[in-house]
Amino acid sequence: MAMAFVEPVVLTGNHVSLEPLTVEHSAALKAAAADGELWNLWFTSVPRPEDAEANTAYRLGLREQGSMMPFVVRRLSDAVIVGATTYMNIVAEHRRLEIGSTWYAQSVQRTAVNTEAKLLLLTHAFETLNCIAVEFRTHWMNRPSRAAIERLGAKLDGVLRAHMIGRNGELRDTCVYSITAPEWPTVKAGLVHRRLPPAGA
User: Fold this and answer.
1) Backbone angles phi, psi at 69, to 5 degrees
2) Distance between CA 106 and CA 110 in Å, rounded?
3) How far apart are CA 74 and CA 78, in angstroms?
4) Torsion of CA 53, 5, 175, 12, to 10 degrees
5) Nearest-CA neighbor of 193 among 127, 111, 119, 99?
6) pTM, rounded to two decimals
7) Centroid of chain to Cα 120
8) Are 11 and 69 in contact (CB under 8 A)?
9) pLDDT for 6-27, tens place per residue?
10) Phi and psi for 48 in degrees, rounded to 5?
11) Could you say which of 67, 70, 103, 164 would form a disulfide bridge with 172 (CB–CB 3.0 to 4.6 Å)?
């Protein structure tokens, strides 16, 4: 049987570890989602705590189809799961994928968690999977997400207008960003510079 383009893998840095999602993670994700009640922000897709099991099953279903590789984000200092992220919209033929469906507990936002998680995912995508480009997509109205993506070094490819119907029936304009393989060394240097040193260093 041929090896899939994206296989389950544990990615470990100085501050976080990204681990393949399992059904056993549902309770921890429920607790993380409750931190900050982020599902109340209409322009995000953070699951409600009571939807944690269903959301986990949904992501695992997409993994079985080969279109998503979901991870939980574990903080190494205390081994607590603080969020989730994925490789999604995987197109093996063209060695492209998107990093998305990402959310974090409010208490770890604006810390080293997101920077290092993105560094781990991008490094694996470009240096192991040999991707030619990695995409990021977010709601036009999600200014914090757009700013975070731009800080990574991704460039805006364009805006898909009236791209999706939101959970409240509103139309979503989607901002599409990407990092290409030739840009990766410069982007990586910036992320490594921004990442905080190992805990206790």
Assistant:
1) -125, 100
2) 9
3) 9
4) 70
5) 119
6) 0.90
7) 11
8) no
9) 999 999 999 999 999 999 999 9
10) -65, 150
11) 164
Q: Are strands 96-104 and 133-139 parallel, antiparallel or unpaired?
A: parallel
Cβ–Cβ < 8 Å for 135, 97: yes
CA 180 – CA 154 distance, rounded (Å): 9
**Length of the chain, in residues:** 201
- How many helices (H) and strands (E) are present in the chain, helices listed first? 5, 8
Sheet holding 96-104, edge to edge: 11-12, 16-20, 68-75, 80-91, 96-104, 133-139, 171-180, 155-165
Give 113-170 pLDDT, tens digit per residue. Answer: 989 999 999 999 999 999 999 999 999 998 988 998 999 999 999 999 999 998 778 8
Contact 44, 139 (CB under 8 A): yes
DSSP of 91-148: EGGGTEEEEEEEEE-GGGTTSHHHHHHHHHHHHHHHHTS--SEEEEEEETT-HHHHHH
Give yes or no for a contact between 116 and 158, defined as CB atoms under 8 angstroms apart.
no
Tokens of 22: 């399992």
